[in-house]
Amino acid sequence: MKKDFRGRKCLVVGSGISGLGSAALLEQMGAEVVLYDSNEKLTAEEIRAKLPGDSKAVCVAGELAEEIYETAQTVVLSPGVPVDIPLVTALRERGAQIIGEIELGYQEEKGRVAAITGTNGKTTTTTLTGEIMRAHLGADKVFVVGNIGDPYTSECLKTGEDTATVGEISSFQLETIRDFHPAVSAILNITPDHLNRHHTMEAYVRAKEAIAMNQTKADVCVLNYDNCYTRSFGERCPARVVWFSSASKLEEGYWLKGDKIVKSVSGREEELLDIHRDMRLVGMCNVENVMAAMAIAEEMGVPMDTILSVVKGFRAVEHRIEFVATKAGVDYYNDSKGTNPDAAIQGIRAMSRPTVLIGGGYDKQSEYDDWIESFDGKVKWLVLIGQTREKIAECAKRHGFDRIRFADTFEECLKLCTALAEKGDAVLLSPACASWGMFPDYEVRGRLFKEYVTGLEG
User: Fold this and answer.
1) Using an 8 Å Cβ cutoff, are 202 and 229 in contact?
2) What is the distance between the alpha carbons of residues 391 and 263, in angstroms, rounded to a whole number?
3) Count of C-beta atoms within a 10 Å radius of residue 266
């Protein structure tokens, strides 16, 4: 049910791209807007400079005035703002409605929505699904939003009855949905991540499962049959479940039979594509991403011929097991989006050469045992950087891996990798950690890696 925001006093917390989108949309909806950022290094003038010139929003930096705090009726949180900080807790206890940017954008949605979450694979699956939908409906009828880039709030007013919105939705964004109701949802997988934010695995799983909380049996939820959390959720999911699997034969759903992706309906198998001949993506993780995107798109009404045509031409998303170049006989791969151990495991599995691996970064309280075990003789050197380097090194040594080098800077790390790699090897940036502390985000980390590789003599 759409809400009337006219005259409503709204507080937007966070002045990044989600906050700016939320503030702009709320003003268009007739709300009285305060845009707030707790960063004391910012000024109100710097925040205002990010807004359109005709904006009437009140901008606040540092400390929030009591008057604003007392009168806020709706609070829109940017994804980076935890829902349990004292400010948010106090506002909730006062009776303020707490929502997020995704929920706000959905209030103005007029078309059908496909929403994708999961610990890993979201960006590739969302990008591919968006490309398939564009091939079917036309580029001007499809909006790809959420954690992938464009805020939902900047696109939702363009939607209509004949449009489709494809959203990459993070666990942070799912914490603050209320009415958000996709026609097709997907949970690609759930493995430990962001425990510094969610505190427990149970809370993290609940956040992911919330993507389907408003769905009914008239809707569809695409789930990974091979993941213990998503498989368990399938038994109580409110939507009709469509399964995909890279490891199990399915009587219903999409699964991998040898080198072929097949679809089974009541046990009857239809071969769809050969993963080696027809796909330009590498790694079993991408086979799963493709199966999920195919299932989502078909449930959104796209003919299979269109789906297969797009899949066959689709290349790797930037920063996700992305081949950069071959220099002096060494292949360089950018997997900067491997920001947790499970994602980084997929990067290792995709390698077919002896590999010099770059790991380390910001500590999200992850455990690295499974990642180290996945090296399986492929990793010849592990070069570690960042806050977690000592923790990872200790874990690696417990598992019998001691070919470890430390680097204090990213430039030192890259030069060291080039020196360690021999003709026929690969160098893989797949850190198993977030980038914060050394880089603004994983994209900057990946682009610096690619710039360095491009500059090498070949």
Assistant:
1) no
2) 43
3) 6
Q: What is this structure's pTM?
A: 0.79
Residues 31, 24: Cα–Cα separation, whole Å: 10
Could you tell me the strand order of the sheet in which 404-406 lies? Answer: 322-327, 330-334, 426-429, 355-359, 379-384, 404-406
- The Cα-based distances of 28 to 83, 250, 323, 413 in angstroms read 26, 48, 43, 48
Q: How far apart are CA 437 and CA 447, in angstroms?
A: 16
Identify the three-state secondary structure at position 149.
coil
Please say whether the beta carbons of 230 and 191 come within 8 A.
no
Which residue type sits at 148?
A: I
How high does pLDDT run on average in the chain? 93
Give the CA angle between residues 416, 419, 421 to the nearest 5°. 105
3-state secondary structure at position 428: strand
User: 457 is written with which tokens?
Assistant: 């003599």
Ramachandran assignment for 61, one of left (phi > 0), alpha (psi -120 to 50 degrees), beta (any other): beta
* DSSP tag of 450: H
pLDDT in tens, 227-283: 999 999 999 999 999 999 999 999 999 999 999 999 999 999 999 999 999 998 878
* Gap between the Cα atoms of 165 and 376, Å rounded: 41
